[in-house]
Amino acid sequence: MITIKFGGIIFDKIIDLSNIINILNHYENKNIFLVISAFGKTSQLLKNAINHSLSGELNKSLNIINDLKTFYYDKLNKNKINNKEYFNKIEYYFDKLENLMRGVYLTSECSDKTWANILSYGEIISSKIIYLFLLENYTKEILWIDATKFMVTNHAFINAEPEINKTKLKFEKLLGDNLLEGNIPKIIISQGFIGANDDEETTTMGFESSNLSACLIGYITKSEKILFVSDVEGVRTCDPKYFKFDKLIKKLNYKNSKLLGVLGVKLLYPSMIEFIEKYSLEIEFHSYNNFKENYTIVYDTKMQKDYKLDNLIIIVKESKGEIILYNASFNNLSDIIADSYFQKTIDNISYQAETIIILLSFPIDLNLVCNKLENIIN
Question: Mind listing the domains of the chain with CATH numbers?
């Protein structure tokens, strides 16, 4: 089994879904579990719709739902998925969303239970779109599963925590004899972010929890690989949208990954790293458009030879504050916080150690930062 999680940001502007098949074909002799996140800004837009309903602005709320419907229908149309039955399946979910928004508007309240129920539809609809696309274009056996049918969490509706042993047992029960006999479908498609408690009520597991969901699924299915596919080529030394001199970090151990995640490096969420470290799992970060090249592996140094980092890492945090410069060798990354000091201007930055991590907080002059850092690197 191979577990592959597709980040929703990929499909914000990318309309053509055909590259999904190209990625699947790299593992044509394997069973694959696909974890799909809500496309684009769907989750945020659903939150906005809830808030409009709470504020008595039902028309604004329903307009958001209608715009989302158009967004997803466009995905179907542009990928030549013209089966009316498929459109009816998606229409059904949007009808339910509209009714939920009307209910919030009429009652002027949205409980955590209702909030979780509404947000779950982003993942449900997005994963269903991928499922319908593959039904039309892929020849292998495909199964779509609602994650609430196997992902067990505690009773919190927002920021729920997964219960691993219960999830494992429920997943095995769901697939039944097929799992025991090794006759599971070639492709299984489900969602991250959502689950259900013991009362079968929908729950959500918080910001970026779909990455944790994918790791948990990889664990319970005993996947030989857990892959994350996004819009960037692996973990980079700095964010390409700010800097042109970003480089690939090819390998990371758990300790460095956790630290960089705490400092704000995208993709490396601390809860996810803690999970894979606990169960000695290896994960990879790939690009949707360049899947086989330039990817990052996060791995267990007990299982493989350690890999020494030798890059400058620049982290930009979009919050007010000062520029923080960390000086340290990557051989001793866990000590960098003790070696840190604050400074108010970029002009004082110097390359004083073998490797440095720079944490940049807004408001800053990014042009000035880029020029200064390029001089340091050169």
Answer: 2-231 (3.40.1160.10), 313-377 (no CATH)
